Backbone:
């Protein structure tokens, strides 16, 4: 697992290389955090998956974690160049829409969803927070 | 003095040097009679008389015929006797006091013995992380090196004391003594880790009977030393000596203290390890898949192959819940929790319990999954589970299934003719997303047909001729096709065998497979064949 950086004015871009699994996911999480801390004003995080190898369940868990943290901080999350294997994993697990929808930080249908306030986001991310009655 | 033994060669000077020598000197003639002795020798050997044979000390009298150095004791002092043979046949014996030197040598040897003992003790104690074994080793070593008998007593929250005793015959005995530690002076304090009570303060006569091994005889002295553990007391060591033995010296008691420190650390480590192990074991026992059997005329068989990498154990699970009052169908759940080890084990337990509690909701899989998702979501991690649920109901000779996948590989349906299809179900993984969706498939199994549930440990198993190829969906489907018409147990064993061969000796994650099969059943028709008959279940 290696990452390389490219940053635009307000965007942080990391190119992921190698497998994202149980052994490497902690490292990716750390690198993303460091990269975002270094660019305090960033409002966009792009993970380039073109060179990404196998992603296992912990790898997917890590992508979900990064997505969740980015949303909480008001940073747009993008997965670029999703390969067939990753796409298949995301579709199988029902996370493709969630991870690739632009700026989808709130559950659709949540009352505060349209407002996209910080409070609304935080509430939506809590287990006890508001949630759609059905999906 | 160094030059004295050389001087006698000059003859007459010798008399002067014998008298003025700073050490006892005895001159013996060729017959062994005393020819001369100086004042120091006279004081040391008051019985020696000039002109008489030397009879004391015996070790010198015995050595007088050969002029080689000898040594021995006179009273409480140690001497070495160095001979110088004079030209006239007489022998001058120079007696050099070596008491201090000897005692230093003896002390050094004893110190080396103690160090060796402590090193051996450490090695023996650290060889095992088993608490019982540690207590036994402690009792045995203490008996071999420190006392006639030894007892190791564990601290306990209960009313009885676990005791390991090694008696004077080196026989180990473990027991529990239902006595308060206060019944032995100093024991309660030692079990709480207070400094040891010097042995001279303990009256051996006050020792209760349980402390003394059978046939030991009268106790002469008794030492109670705490076994200091890692932060908490690990127990107490009781050393017993018989009446005819010397009492414990201060040096011996301090050695016992050093030994106790090592034994205590080892016992404490063993206890911590045992506690940790029992936690893991408890968790693992909870995680062990249930034994499956036929329920309501449907065959169920499950196979679980835990990863051999202990740190990779923990993700997969399956459960079969037979019909109950609130749930008329059998509910099968097979799933996989992201991650490994303790955290995964905890999450697995949580999701299984939640599913169990929600059994009455099993008529609506989507609703049940939403409730589970809500219960599993937490703000401090994004660990998730994928699972597949199957509600199973026997309908005449067929089995009706409702199958719902929550982010999990879809079950395979193995038809009688060897056709293998994926059940048309899909959905969102559980535990992370605020809203989830799912699509339930309705499937009917004719007799001999099987629905195969599996975790990605099967399809992602790496092996094959190159050792690093994934087993994959296609190979699994081919293997499944070969199972057409087989009973559930045979299907599971076949899939397990094929994946095991694929993996070879390589690493793999947990692998779980579960088969739901409509039994082919023998037709128990009435003899005339006209009635409808029954089918065995």
Residues:
């Amino acid at each position: 697992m290696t990452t390389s950086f490219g940053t635009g004015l307000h965007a942080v871009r990391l190119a992921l290389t190698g497998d994202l699994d149980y052994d490497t996911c902690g490292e990716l999480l750390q690198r993303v955090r460091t990269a975002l801390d270094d660019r305090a004003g960033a409002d966009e995080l792009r993970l380039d998956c073109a060179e990404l190898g196998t992603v296992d369940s912990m790898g997917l868990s890590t992508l979900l974690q990064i997505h969740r943290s980015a949303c909480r901080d008001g940073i747009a999350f993008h997965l670029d160049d999703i390969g067939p294997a990753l796409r298949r994993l995301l579709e199988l697990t029902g996370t493709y829409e969630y991870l690739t929808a632009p700026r989808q930080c709130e559950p659709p249908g949540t009352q505060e969803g349209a407002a996209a306030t910080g409070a609304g986001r935080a509430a939506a991310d809590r287990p006890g927070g508001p949630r759609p009655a059905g999906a | 003095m160094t030059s004295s033994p050389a001087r006698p060669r000059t003859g007459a000077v010798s008399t002067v040097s014998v008298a003025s020598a700073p050490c006892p000197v005895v001159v013996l003639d060729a017959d062994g009679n005393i020819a001369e002795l100086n004042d120091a020798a006279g004081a040391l050997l008051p019985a020696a008389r000039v002109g008489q044979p030397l009879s004391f000390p015996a070790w010198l009298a015995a050595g007088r015929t050969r002029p080689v150095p000898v040594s021995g004791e006179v009273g409480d002092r140690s001497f070495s006797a160095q001979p110088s043979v004079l030209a006239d046949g007489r022998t001058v014996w120079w007696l050099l006091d070596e008491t201090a030197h000897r005692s230093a040598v003896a002390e050094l040897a004893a110190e080396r013995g103690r160090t060796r003992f402590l090193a051996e003790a450490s090695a023996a104690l650290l060889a095992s992380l088993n608490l019982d074994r540690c207590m036994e080793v402690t009792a045995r070593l203490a008996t071999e090196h420190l006392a006639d008998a030894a007892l190791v007593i564990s601290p306990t929250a209960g009313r009885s004391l676990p005791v390991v005793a090694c008696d004077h015959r080196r026989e180990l005995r473990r027991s529990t003594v239902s006595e308060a530690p206060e019944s032995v002076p100093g024991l309660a304090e030692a079990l709480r880790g207070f400094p040891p009570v010097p042995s001279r303060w303990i009256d051996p006569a006050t020792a209760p009977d349980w402390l003394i091994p059978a046939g030991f005889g009268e106790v002469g002295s008794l030492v109670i030393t705490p076994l200091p553990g890692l932060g908490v007391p690990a127990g107490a060591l009781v050393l017993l000596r018989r009446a005819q033995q010397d009492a414990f010296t201060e040096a011996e008691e301090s050695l016992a203290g050093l030994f106790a420190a090592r034994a205590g650390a080892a016992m404490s480590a063993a206890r911590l390890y045992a506690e940790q192990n029992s936690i893991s074991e408890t968790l693992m026992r909870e995680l062990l898949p249930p034994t499956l059997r036929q329920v309501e005329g449907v065959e169920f068989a499950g196979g679980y192959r835990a990863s051999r990498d202990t740190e990779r154990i923990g993700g997969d699970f399956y459960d079969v819940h037979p019909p109950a009052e609130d749930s008329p169908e059998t509910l099968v759940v097979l799933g996989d929790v992201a991650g490994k080890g303790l955290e995964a084990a905890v999450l697995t337990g949580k999701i299984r319990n939640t599913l169990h509690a929600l059994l009455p909701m099993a008529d609506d899989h989507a609703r049940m999954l939403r409730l589970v998702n809500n219960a599993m979501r937490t703000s401090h991690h994004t660990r998730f589970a994928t699972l597949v649920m199957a509600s199973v109901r026997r309908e005449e000779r067929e089995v009706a299934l409702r199958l719902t996948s929550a982010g999990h590989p879809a079950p395979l349906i193995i038809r009688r003719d060897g056709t293998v299809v994926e059940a048309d179900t899909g959905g969102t993984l559980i535990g992370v997303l605020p809203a989830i969706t799912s699509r339930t498939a309705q499937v009917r199994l004719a007799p001999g047909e099987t629905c195969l549930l599996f975790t990605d440990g099967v399809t992602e198993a790496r092996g094959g001729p190159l050792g690093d190829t994934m087993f994959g969906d296609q190979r699994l489907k081919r293997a499944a096709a070969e199972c057409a018409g087989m009973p559930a147990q045979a299907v599971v064993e076949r899939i397990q065998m094929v994946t095991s061969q694929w993996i070879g000796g390589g690493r793999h994650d947990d692998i779980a497979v579960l088969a739901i099969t409509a039994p082919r059943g023998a037709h128990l028709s009435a003899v005339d064949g006209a009635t409808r008959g029954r089918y065995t279940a």
Observations:
- The helical segments of chain A are 25-38, 57-72, 84-92, 96-100, 118-125.
- The mean pLDDT of chain A is 76.
- The interface with chain B takes residues 22, 56-58, 60-62, 64-65, 68, 92-95, 98, 106-110, 124-127, 129, 131-132, 134-135 of chain A (CB under 8 Å).
- The first helix of chain A runs from residue 25 to 38.
